[in-house]
TrEMBL record:
Keyword Iron in record: yes
Top-rank lineage group of the source organism: Bacteria
UniProt protein name: Ferrous iron transport protein A
GO MF terms held by the record: transition metal ion binding
Domain Ferrous iron transporter FeoA-like intervals: 3-74
Record bears the keyword Iron: yes
Keyword terms of this UniProt record: Iron
InterPro entries: Fe-transptr_FeoA-like, FeoA, FeoA_core_dom, Transcriptional_repressor_C
């Protein structure tokens, strides 16, 4: 089932399928936000943005707009 990274619920793990490289900051790609890596939603900020993920053993805060550009599968 394909969905956006922003659609995960806390504790869910997903595998990254595709990344819109034109919309994703280079820093996220360098930190392991690449196809084939696993992402787990750890926490959501109190106001709902950003989302905190564990990607490739790195804790990464990603804005919802950016997370919607990353396609994952459960």
């Amino acid at each position: 089932m394909k969905l956006a990274l922003a659609e995960l619920k806390i504790g869910q793990k997903a595998t990254i399928l595709d990344v819109n490289t034109e919309e994703i900051p280079l820093k996220l790609l360098e930190m392991g936000c690449l196809p084939g890596n696993t992402a787990e939603l750890i926490q959501i900020a109190p106001l709902g943005d950003p989302l905190y993920f564990n990607i490739n053993d790195s804790h990464v805060a990603i804005r919802i707009e950016t997370a919607q550009q990353i396609e994952v599968t459960l």
